[in-house]
Amino acid sequence: MSNPIKGRPEQVVPLLTITIENVVSADLVGEFCIGRTVDLDASSTKHGCNSILSLYETESPVDVVEVEDRLIEAFIHHPKCSNSDGDIKAATSEKFMNYVYVAIWYSEKKNEHAA
């Protein structure tokens, strides 16, 4: 998904859940985490991930928190998910666009394919 979707949480969460499941089920994905940010580049650098996918975009701090929380709840027990119940959440903004993303780290299998 190259462009993040917009909409009310109840409209977008089912689609985002399917999208995340499709992405993270790939063998080349070794680990992932779901988060929110106002700066995707800074979040990518902070995580040190191989890839970051912007999934959801909103001007509403309330909506971004709800979408992130519902997606983490859906995936917290996934074997590749590195989110935990005690994770510190990023700030939201009323002045900037808010994003929900999935950060991805590739598995060793991806490196074997490149060799």
Please characterize this protein's 3D structure.
The protein is built from four helices and three strands; from the N terminus they run H-E-H-E-H-E-H. The protein is an alpha+beta fold. Helix 1 packs across helix 3. A three-stranded antiparallel beta sheet has the order 1-3-2, with helices on both faces.
Considering the chains and any ligands shown, give keywords for the structure.
single chain, 115 residues, alpha+beta, three-stranded antiparallel β-sheet, 4 helices, globular, disordered C terminus
| N- to C-terminal distance | 27 Å
Helix content: 40-55%
The share of residues in extended strands comes to 15-25%
Helix and strand string, N-terminal first? HEHEHEH
In terms of per-residue confidence, which ranges show pLDDT below 50 for 5 or more consecutive residues? Answer: 111-115
Give me the side-by-side strand order of the main sheet: 1-3-2
Described by the principal axes of the CA atoms, the overall outline is globular
Give a topology summary.
Elements (H helix, E strand, L loop, with lengths): L8 H16 L4 E9 L2 H8 L3 E8 L2 H15 L22 E9 L1 H7 L1
Antiparallel strand pairs: 1-3, 2-3
Helix pairs in contact: 1-3
